Amino acid sequence: MTEKIKPARVQSAGKVSPKMNSRLNEISKLTKKELKARSRKFSKKYCVGDGDKFSLDKYRTDPDIDLGPEDKPQMKQTLQVGVEALAEMQNILYAHDRWSLLLIFQAMDAAGKDGAIKHVMSGVNPQGCQVTAFKAPNAEELDHDFLWRCQKQLPERGRIGIFNRSYYEEVLVVRVHEQILKAQKLPEKLVTEDIWQERFKDIRNFEKYLYRNGTKVIKFFLNVSKKEQKKRFIERIDNPEKNWKFSAADAKERTFWKDYMKAYEEMIRKTSTKESPWYVVPADNKSFARIVIASAVINALDELHLEYPKVGKEKIAELQAIKQILMDEK
Ligand code: ATP
Ligand code: MG
To answer: Whole-structure pTM over 0.85, yes or no?
Structure first.
């Protein structure tokens, strides 16, 4: 079941969709306030909020508007408008220096996490942003609790942190493959059938704790279809420049698709909250997915009501005095 009915495609290849074109013209003329309001409205459709009643089959993997390759340049420009707004908001986040924002990306292979991170954050000052990719844990990491390695990478106040995979792998790949849990060196009596519910609870509490200390967490599940993943895998095999991106392990993981979807669904149901929501991003169209993500990030920053620190009268007088000295310089 999907939420919306996709209209029949009427555009002929090579033409620019008038619908998309007029949307773009509109977007580039918006004031900052209007752009933020638009981002809120647009991203809301993909925001799960309180996860209690979440069901994955209500969310599409493809965009709910009719898009073709001819719309790509317009979509790029739309994203550019978002990226510029985001860059400015990040400057204010940095100057305000109270909040930090953590963006978590989870997805099946080839869903476009890396590209989304690269494009959406392309305008952001690298000094105010840190990306961490989490692979299978090493021996040192396995000697600690499962949040340990992620805690070390949390963003400082005023920064945006990005997790490319995260502690959520602990209820995804670890749940799908029993042997990974067995290798985690946990005391035997703690590994019961309740372990997944316990981990959901630990994650919820952890994110609540972070929020109470000034770190807002938002999570993105890039929802790609199995069919689109196959297409991207074949592309990675056929295109020598993309060969490095493909591994046989990726194709093997694909055979566990149903188990993964079940695990994703329960994870979102149990860990999406109003303060730290999951976004289920339609990921079959990469450009569209990036616009959804940019809108959600703009909205998250907007909700923090950030502003440049206000300077007191004394400081203003001091600045004016220094300016005078500079002006008088010969
Ligand atoms: P790419 O798009 O380049 O494939 P990737 O994020 O898939 O990016 P990989 O190096 O292919 O990067 O995969 C990382 C692997 O590490 C994934 O298969 C993931 O499931 C696994 N992993 C991450 N965290 C854990 C964990 N806590 N326990 C076990 N495996 C993990
Ligand atoms: Mg991979």
So the answer is: yes
Count other C-beta atoms under 10 Å from residue 23's C-beta.
17
Nearest residue (CA) to ligand 1, atom 17:
135
User: Which residue's CA lies nearest to atom 9 of ligand 1?
Assistant: 135
Ligand 1 center–CA 185 separation, angstroms: 20
CATH class of 18-328: alpha beta
pLDDT, mean of residues 30-54:
94
Task: For residue 123, count other CB atoms closer than 10 A to its CB.
Answer: 17
Tokens of 315: 């400081």
Question: What angle do helix axes 257-271 and 195-212 make, rounded to 10 degrees?
Answer: 50
How many residues comprise the chain? 330
- Residue 228: which residues within 8 A CB-CB, separation 6 or more? 61, 283, 284
End-to-end alpha-carbon separation of the chain, Å?
A: 75
